[in-house]
Structure formats: C-alpha cells, structure tokens
Amino acid sequence: MDSESASKIRVNEWKETPYIRGVKPLEITNEHWGIEQVWKSVQNTPQLTLSKDVAQAVAQCRAFLESKLTGDNGPAIYGVNTGFGDLAHTRVGSDELSALQRNLLVSHACGVGEVVPTEVVRAMVLLKIKALGKGHSGVRLETVERLMAHWNANLLPVVPSQGSLGASGDLAPLSHMVLPLIGEGEVHVEGIPVPSHEVLQAKGWTPLQLGAKEGLALINGTQLMLAYGVMAMERLERIADWADALCAWSLEAWHGRIEPFDVDIHNLRNQSNAALVASNVTDWLKKSQWQQTPREQVQDPYSFRCAPQVHGASRNTLAFARTVLENEINAVTDNPLIFPEKDKVLSGGNFHGQPLALQLEALALAAAEWGSISERRTFKLLSGRQGLPAFLVANPGLNSGFMIPQYTAASLVSQNKQLCAPNVVDTIDSSNGQEDHVSMGANAALKLWKVLDNVEQVLAIECLSAAQACDLRGTKGMAPALEGLQRSLRREVPFLSQDAYMHPHLLAAKAWMFSRELSNDGHSAG
Question: What whole-number distance in Å separates Cα of residue 445 and Cα of residue 426?
C-alpha cells in the first residue's frame, strides 16, 4: 500500500474516532499566564474555549479595522492594503486584500530542515491563540476559532524548523503552522503527515478565506522562539534538580568532603542560588553513614567543591529568563497593532526577537555548564583514586568498564562548546535592507534544544558512573535518599561486573532520569 493510500485510510479512521482527552477545558482569558500554565496545557491537551471578554475583544478589534478600510482612497496601513517588507510602499487594491493575505502565507512558507517537535508545535499554536485573543491583531473571530479547532481535534501542523531570522517574527515557521487554515500544507494524523486539504475534507471544514491583515497577524510574532524557550524551561528545571542530585551522588561515591556545602560559606557571598544548591546537595546526603568516615584529602577538585557556585550561577540564568518568557507569553507581538479604544493603528517592532534571543543564548550557556562540570565529576570517578578501581570495573585491562562512556560525555560537552557560540551577535540584511537588524533568535532556540539533548545524556553518564561506584563500595550506609535512587535505577540498568554493550544502558539511564519527577524522599524518581 502506498503512503498516500495509507494516509487517506488514517484520515477516514480518525474521522470516525474523535480525539478524546477527558480533562477539564481551558478557557482562553486575558488572565496572566505563567510558564507552568503552558506546560500543563501542552501535556494535558485540554479542549480550548474562548471567554466572552476575549471573543468580544477580538470581534471589536476586527470591526474597528474594517471601519478603516474605506476603499482605495483610505489611508495606507502596512500589511493591510500595502505590500510587505521593502514593498511596504506598494499599495494593494481593496478587491485584492484577501489574495494579498493568502499570497503572504504561501510565499513565506519556505521552511526547511527537521520538523519542530510535537510539544513545541502545540505550544506555538496555544501561544498564538493567546496573543490573538488580546484583541489588538485585527483577525476575525472565526480565524481564532479555527486555530482552536485544530488544537481541539489534535490536528497539529507539520512545521519545518529552519527559516526564521527571528526579526519580523518567526515568519517561515509560523506560515507553515497556519497553512492548514487555508487548506495548504500538512498536519499530523496519528503521527503521520497528511495533506491538509484531505483532513479538512474529512472534517467537513471549509478552507478559510483570509480577510485583510489576517495573514500578517498569523505569521508575525515570536511564537516559535517563545515555544522553544518555554518548553526548554521545563527541561532546564529538571536538569537543574538532577545536577544537584548527581553532585551529591558522585560526592558520596567519591567519598568527598561535605564542608563546601556548609551554609556559613554561602551566607558570606549572598548568592541565593548557590546557597540553594548547597542546601539541595546536603538534603540528598542526610543520614549518610559514609559522610562520617574520615577523609584523607584536605580538599576535593573544583567539580565537587565549587558545584554550588557553578550550578547556582546557571540557576540565576533560569530565574531571569523565566521573567522574560512569561512577559512574552502574555504579549502581543505581531504588526501593525490596533488600538480601537484610542482610534489608532500603529506599526512598530514588537515582533523583533531580541529579548528572547538573548535569553535563549544565556539558557544554552547555563545548560552547557551543567554538562561541563558533570563530565568532570565523571572523569574523576574513573581515575582509580579514592579507593575506586580504574574505570569502575573489576580487572581493568581485560575490561574497559566506563572508559568510553566518558569519551561520549566529553564529545557532547565539546559539541556544546561549539554550539554555544552566540547566534544573536550575527545579523544579515533582509528584504532589501528594510529589515537591517535581525535577532537570529530562532537559530538560538534550535541550538538550545540540541544543547539540552546533549546535557541530558552527559548527566545520564554521570548517573551511571556514580551508581557503579556506589555499588563497588557496597551501598550499605549510603544516604537513604540516594540509595532510593540507586535502587530505582537498578530496575532499569544493571550493575556491570564486566564489559557489556553500553549504548542501551546510556539511553535507558537518560530515559529513567528525564521521563519522571525527581524526588529526594528516598523513593527515587517517579
């Protein structure tokens, strides 16, 4: 059976079996959303509804805009009755305004590369609905409702990841995101890309005929950058918590000193997140009998001793970025913007991605540092010191043990160093120089996602190494919370008494760590 036939069968099957969620609907209001609201919605996929206030604001804004469109003799409004970019001075006739918006979508849908992950696309759609609901974009209510219908039916668009300069919004990816509204592009049906016109036909939906400004409102905006940033924050916060737990786990395995985590040290510097990390590490080490054993070394290497300062600095970055991202979640970032109550239509630059781009760069650096210091702790555990065998295996020489996983970690850390060269310092003129400074924030977002993939695997390698070292010592007497993690991990990855095929263990450890909540109550993650 060819793929086209398979697609049609899936569409027909899907048509008869509506997507079922069984969770409380989410009403789109003008209330302030935090990052958690987006995470929760992306994870639970509630049915969306519009509050009366939001629906009224959208309708009133549209009515105001249409009152300004008084034929070919009215005022020129950028993107409404003019061309785009360097063609802003070209007037478009009133009988061509709908065609202008359709042309905008299809001409700007020129993205390439790997498709955007499903959870990020879902966040993009939700964030676009949230922004349009503010009532400053001039779209029709039925256009917002069609976007909601795609969300509610779990018919998410196929969005190529590359093509945005992060300046006039994420033009190319957002064009792909909204192409299904007009029956173009593709949507995912049960994970398979299907032409949108087939799906609309199966649903009995008529492709939208866009009105004046609607195409521009749909594709201007920072929703690709923002969605990556918001969804990355969930991963980053999990990385932050795991980094502290792994520091404690490796310190326990290394028989390191606990003094660098004393609250009095951190009170003198007054860096709150460094103090938080120190507190987290000591919490994991509570009731450890191993910590009562006299230490021969006077000091530990920096990767242990300075972990609060390094981990804490990365946490600082997350705290500031959260504020910027949450402001953007609740913002309107298309152009021009419409203010019915003040009788104004203003063209500006809210779509420029610079505020997000700088934070996405900073988040990549913060994540890379967690990976970098983690790899150094792994390296120390393999060194054959502190009473541990070289490469954490019996009979080294015959067995390579954990030698090569450290190579993998080092390779990933090295790639992160290269990836973290900032995209935001670059700018390339576009649209004949009309758009002469761009943020490259979309590239920063894609880079961040890759850095997170690498860091999660690096941390998983430290996890395996720390657990192997603790088993070699015998786990009796280790901190109860860490022993709980150890038992949980061993249900997924065994202790290795001799060399084994390592690749599946690396992946299993990563999946175990990042597919569940981390708990320090002695009962492990999840």
Answer: 14
